[in-house]
Amino acid sequence: MDRPYHVLFLCTGNSARSIIAEALMNRMGEGRFRAFSAGSFPKGAINPGAVPIVERLGYAASDFRSKSWDEFAAAGAPHLDFVFTVCDDAAGEICPVWPGHPVTAHWGIPDPAAVQGHPAEVAAAFGEATRQLRNRITAFVNLPLASLDRMTLDARLREIGSGAHDAGPA
Q1: What is the DSSP string of 58-104?
Q2: Could you give the residue numbers annotated as active site?
């Protein structure tokens, strides 16, 4: 390709998992990928639990914003190659029609923003979500995308989304 692959991560609120996935993909994609995130019902702000994670990846919280997925279905939006839902609610919603018919897959991750309790428990939930996302993104960026046909690629993305790669290190 003459440009990086464009990847959109979707979640309902676009405040935690999809933001973390966007940051991870942009860091790990090494210029081969350009990630974005959005939500069906964006919260309008990044969850405070996601802030230290994106900062550890070398970004400022202000580099991210909670936004509607409608921005990516509108004229002038980046051409999307891949769209991944990272929450079960977004996977069950009627998504916009994405221009260019990108490859889609569901990579459901438990919502760390739903965890209540001691700050250490909340931080642990965000750490686990980040670990799972990192492992799935690692598996994805290491796929030989140029040599896979659509059916094989769909199968590999379903395998990644099943959590088959989640057992790896953080």
Answers
A1: T--GGG----BGGGGTSTTPPPPSEEEE-SHHHHTS-PPPPTT--EE
A2: 11, 87, 95
Mean pLDDT of 128-145: 96
Eight-class DSSP state of 19: H
Cα distances (Å, whole numbers) of residue 164 to 43, 55, 93:
30, 28, 24
pLDDT in tens, 4-46: 999 999 998 999 999 999 999 999 998 999 999 999 899 999 9
Q: Which residues pair with 8 in a beta bridge?
A: 36, 83
pLDDT in tens, 106-125: 999 999 999 999 999 999 99
Cβ atoms within 10 Å of 162's Cβ, excluding its own = 14
Q: What is the pLDDT of residue 170?
A: 54
Using a 10 angstrom Cβ sphere, with 0-12 exposed, 13-18 middle and 19 or more buried, the burial of residue 105 is: buried
Domains of the chain, CATH where assigned: 5-161 (3.40.50.2300)
Q: Do 124 and 100 form a contact (C-beta atoms < 8 A)? A: no
